[in-house]
Write a structure and sequence with these properties.
The structure is a homodimer. Chain A is an alpha/beta fold. Chain A contains 28 helices and 13 strands. Chain A is about 55% helix and about 5% strand. The first copy, chain A, is elongated, with a radius of gyration of 29 Å. Chains A, B: Keywords: Chloride, Ion transport, Membrane, Transmembrane, Transmembrane helix, Transport.
């Protein structure tokens, strides 16, 4: 990663960089908990039990504590007297829904605006509109009768009146490549200079944030602006990337901004519920697939882990619907269709023999998807450790030049990926004209070769592009690769059927040769599904998204089968999808939701023993000042408190500091050094002691060390825990934090931590 | 419920019947745990730590213990030496997938077979085929050109050569009503005599079973057969019920049977994962909606609570796809379409002004849905406490007579609900002919009146039917009610637009009056969505199911909006959907997944104090025989073990008994009364003691009493706990079981426990 990226984090503290495979029993408590380091963050509004802790960037929220704070707040809200008490819960809820509706509308508008911008920038690489610079090709040529030639749209050579064919091609290719470099370069400069977190897809980070990672800079208004603008430039530059993932990031930034504007940021869990809804809406807009968006939230973002999953799903559902409606209302393509790729023309039924090519496609998709993940991870690690890490803009400029040059040579690479996919998804229709000879039955082998070449080139380009310092999604390139392969397979099958119409295997085809039997366009959809299954390892959401794209009820089953087989094949080569791999590489504190099976170990395997913990011993007659000094010196998020060998509980440092701060001032004024205690019993016996027992966090779980490891992992996964204390017979025996569990679950991955940001 | 229903349970022990609103702090431990009573159930194959407990009917499984047993088993499987060790995990997995595929195929076949049977029985009420008794009307009339009159199908009066019009109507109505009574009556007799658990929809029970309730009789082969047969008869009788819910039950029975046949029953959690997949497949077949089926599993059955949600979803997905494929392959309707209701003909776009009638429809749907739930619950409670409870068959016969008589008078009630819905969902097409005058524009008011009358009659009929001693689903009647109301609203809107084509509000309509602007068929879909939303309170799955039915991408948004609004309206009148209400009435140990917010209470609110628990005091020099006697005398599932005031843990009675049984025989043979201990420490000091410390269940969680109540409830919900021990400083302070939490969450419902089976 670039030095620019490191800049903002330098001021805030770092996620720990762990070298390779540290023995889990062996690392020090400092290392394991250094990401919990808390500085002097400002404290939020006080509640009855003292202020809640503000979380520092790069820490993990304490889910149970946040829930308890929310409980407290709701109770206060409901217990108010009079009209205000009766109305404030309603008002609160109304404000929430207002923000949700606004978020939905905002995302719809942002999506539409991006579409328009990308189309215009992309067309600019080919030419311009005669009567206005800011028209894209479609808008420029609108209003023509079918068949009429559009004379208003001029290629650059026409515009500059270059006559010679050589001059024309040189000029056209020069503008094409130069603008690609300019777009990609400015996108990279924007990202590197103003918002380093706007690079990449954003989905790994959002997954981590939804699970409790604190990463507010990732959601800043600045990131929002740069990501949106940079995304439009990056997509228009013709690099092998898509807008889907980044659009989810943009949606989350927007929700975060709106929540801040309307004062809804008071609870970290509430914030995450809003983000989950916004992420669904982002997918909804990206694909024009509102149900797919909600499912994406459920499946990939695992929003079911919230304590009220129904409510979260529900809000995601409403936000998705509103976003899709706004997009449809704005209608950026003038087609009054929601979806990006209109899929039409393929026959209503499919035949059993087609399952054979589809199975092959699915297996190829799974293999290639798995390969793409591995190559992409290797490329990312190579980039990090090479000189390229220091020159991110140069890398983008250079690679966009390569991409543009290569793309200009292959006709299917030259066009925007979305246009290519839209054409590949469509059946050949004699009335509609041929797309670059794709429908020419005599050019079968040429087409198949071209399609496979395109797919392979795209695999290589995508491998490198996904991870450069520009906003980049992996969905669209994956779809394009799959669609090319699928179309190639479809053409082959069609050719085979046409040349052997009487073979027994094709007996199900209609005998009339003029009625098409095989629909190569649908093979593209199958190929796209297979490739997506291999890369993302999603299942349901993919099927729903592709179903919403195609709208073909009768074709749901083949899509399902292809996703199933592709996932099976890919899983055999490695269980993790591309987002999980990136999360592990960047070492975010995110727990995979997969079932963890221990091999008979107990929690003792990962428990940090009490000897290596920093513990407050309550019997030691600590003065308030000493306690404060202790907090300053250690700087952890919290500490177990032990009195005479008995575990009293866990206290959160920030909360305790905020409580004792005024007492300390009193002490300083009066000159008395008061002694404090966390034991109710001691406080009752000795009224001179300052009773801090109310500060003990009653939401921290205590377990015994001989609990099965699997159960502990399961609890961290299901309850979103931050830490668990271990005790035996009332005595503290150790502690496990989320980091320990994340490490346990990810250490086997090849590149775990390879992209974690180093401490400088 | 009938006395017949009570019979089989009488031998097995009862779910406790709680009278009204017992104070949660006040009930005795016996009452709270009586459903955990374990008899001398046979024990399963022993594992390294002794045999696992077999669960008695009507108990709740110990989720954590089952998971630990599964862990143990997997480990054993993997640790085997040689080829067998290498192959057995693969074989195990292959067997699972084999059962899943088989289940999918089986459900598809069952669904198709039911469709055929129902169609034939239903048509039999009108007439018979000339050339074969076992043909239904469609099969009988197949092969005709369009427009040709089918002479092969004869009404009963034609068959019996009755000429006079009076004679014809009397004969037709007599056969119609008599066969309705015969079908419904035989269905009720089958259910009451052979499989009382085959009554009703089955979804509340499946929800409870998936969450850990043990109810194997509900899944027996006998229930499978009777439910399938009884369902076909009940649907054909024309009672106001659907096949969707019962089909889910049938699917689960089938999966259970197949799992038993292929020896897969060894783990209760694995069994439940299979059932979850089967349930999805059931919905998939019932609606021809494979994605909707999976979502139904996620949303309504809450299958996300499994420890490996991805795997569960995945299996559900595969099973659904296979079931839908089998159904499509068998093609019972000869249409080569998956779906029950083909929705066609409505225009591609909708106009903004249509949102007004849709909002009204959605609100009406929500209101009526909520009303239907309340009326249905009241009817069920009334039935239970009245004389009808003793005469279930008579009730069914009587009510089917009333239904048939009323239905015969109203044309839209006379046809099968599914046919009515299919017609209502379809746009008027001049080429297709008019369905009972529905498309006659001059009969607008008559049609609206008839539709509303049909809807209201159906509400009343459904209210009573859903809960009688026959298999009955609530989905189809709800859809029919909504479709009638929607069509009525659509006709009104259409009429208004036709009479005022120039009004500003209809400005969006095409000026040409021959082009239809309002599509009343689609209003039916909206109405059905609204009604379903009000009754079931599902969101996503409904939208997906209706989307898969209609296939109209452009119309997803109106469906979403209608479900949203309907749920809002209905939620304002009571949060629970019809299945939750029934679960509460029958008092199954099922925890609603909704977020529970305490009002500042801690766990102490529901903890049964240590004084009222039956505890094993380890220091008391207990002999093995005494321990055995203690188990026999108390008969609970398990007991906390305390040694010198220190909580050692929790032991499961069955497991301990199985371990000490051979030791007892030794004692009896040798005449020595050995003393046992659960403390490792004591056993180490005194080698004469029998060391039982390994039997202490290491998966039981221990909490402190001052933990917030919300956290405890949340843990029970997320971790599927059975019980939690409470301790403070190593001393046992109390215990909370699932029953306590269920009671806490359901006691506010009006009819909680009203239908629980009483102890006799």
């Amino acid at each position: 990663m670039s030095t620019e990226l490191d800049q903002p984090s330098r001021q805030t503290g770092w996620f720990p960089f762990r070298n390779g495979h540290t023995d889990t029993n062996n690392y020090s408590v400092e290392e394991a908990e250094s990401y919990e380091l808390l500085g002097d963050g400002s404290l939020t509004q006080s509640t009855t039990k003292g202020p809640r802790p503000a979380y520092k960037e790069r820490s993990t929220i304490d889910w149970l504590l946040e829930e308890s704070a929310e409980r407290e707040r709701t109770r206060t809200l409901h217990s108010r007297r009079g009209l205000r008490g009766a109305l404030s819960p309603t008002l609160e809820s109304a404000r929430w829904w207002f923000v949700i509706v606004l978020t939905g509308v905002g995302i719809g508008i942002a999506g539409a605006w991006l579409d328009v911008l990308v189309k215009w920038l992309g067309d600019l690489r080919e030419g311009r509109c005669r009567y206005g610079f800011f028209y894209n090709q479609v808008a420029c040529c609108s209003g023509l009768d079918p068949g009429e030639v559009c004379t208003e749209w001029q290629s650059w050579s026409q515009y500059l009146h270059v006559r010679s064919i050589l001059g024309q091609s040189v000029l056209q290719s020069f503008v094409y490549i130069a603008l690609a470099i300019a777009f990609a370069g400015s996108s990279a400069i924007l990202v590197v200079t103003y918002a380093p977190y706007a690079f990449h897809t954003g989905i790994p980070e959002i997954k981590a944030i939804l699970k409790g990672y604190v990463f507010d800079q990732f959601l800043s208004p600045w990131t929002l602006l740069i990501k949106a603008l940079g995304l439009a430039l990056a997509v228009a530059s013709g690099l092998s990337l898509g807008k889907e993932g980044p659009l989810v990031h943009v949606a989350c930034c927007m929700a975060y901004l709106l929540a801040k504007l309307f004062g809804l940021r008071n609870n970290e869990i509430q914030k995450r519920k809003l983000l989950a809804a916004a992420a669904s809406a982002g997918v909804s807009v990206a694909f024009g697939s509102p149900i797919g968006g909600v499912l994406f939230g459920l499946e990939e973002l695992d929003t079911f882990s919230f304590s009220n999953e129904g409510e979260v799903m529900w809000r995601g559902f409403v936000t998705s619907a509103i976003a899709a409606m706004s997009l449809q209302y704005i209608d950026p393509f003038g087609t009054s269709k929601l979806v990006l790729f209109q899929v039409t023309g393929f026959s209503d039924t499919w035949r059993a023999f087609e399952l054979i090519p589809w199975f092959i496609l699915a297996a190829v998709g799974g293999l290639l998807g798995s390969l793409l993940i591995k190559m992409n991870a290797a490329a990312a690690v190579y980039r990090r450790n090479s000189i390229l890490h220091e020159w991110p803009v140069l890398e983008v400029v250079g690679f966009s030049a390569i991409t543009a040059a290569v793309s200009y040579l292959v006709v299917f690479l030259r066009v925007q990926s979305s246009e290519l996919v839209a054409q590949l998804f469509q059946e050949c229709d004699p009335n509609k004209g041929d797309y670059h000879g794709l429908c020419n039955p005599t050019a079968l082998w040429e087409n198949v070769f071209l399609l496979i070449l395109t797919a392979m080139t795209k695999v290589l380009l995508t491998t490198w592009t996904f991870g450069m310092m520009i906003p980049a999604g992996i969905f669209l390139p994956t779809i394009a690769i799959g669609a090319c392969l699928g179309r190639a397979m479809g053409l082959l099958t069609q050719g085979l059927q046409r040349s052997h119409p009487t073979a027994w295997i094709f007996a199900a085809c209609p005998p009339d040769p003029t009625i098409p039997c095989v629909s190569p366009g649908f093979y593209s959809v199958i190929g796209a599904a297979a490739m997506l299954g291999g890369v993302t390892r999603m299942t349901l959401s993919l099927v729903v998204i592709l179903f919403e794209l195609t709208g073909a009820l009768s074709h749901v089953l083949p899509i399902m089968i292809s996703v199933v087989v592709s996932k099976w094949v890919a899983d055999a080569l490695g269980k993790e999808g591309i987002y999980s791999v990136w999360i592990a590489m960047r070492q975010y504190p995110w727990l995979p939701p997969d079932e963890f099976r221990d091999k008979g170990q107990t929690a003792a395997q990962i428990v940090k023993p009490v000897e290596s913990l920093v513990v407050i011993y309550d019997e030691e007659q600590t003065t308030l000042k000493e306690l404060n000094t202790f907090f300053e010196a250690n700087g952890y998020h919290g500490y177990p408190v032990v009195n005479n060998d008995k575990l009293l509980g866990y206290i959160v440092a920030e909360k305790t500091k905020a409580y004792i701060d005024p007492l300390l001032s009193d002490d300083a004024a009066s000159g008395v050094q008061r002694i404090c205690t966390f034991s109710k019993h001691a406080a009752a016996n000795n009224p001179d002691l300052v009773d801090l027992s109310d500060l003990i966090d009653d939401t921290v779980l205590q377990l015994r060390k001989d609990v099965p490891l699997q159960l502990v992992v399961n609890m961290f996964q299901k309850m979103n825990l931050r830490h668990v204390l271990f005790s035996q017979g009332g005595k503290l025996t150790g502690m496990v934090t989320k980091t320990d569990v994340v490490w346990l679950l990810t250490e086997h991955l090849p590149h775990t931590g390879a992209l974690a940001e180093e401490e400088s």
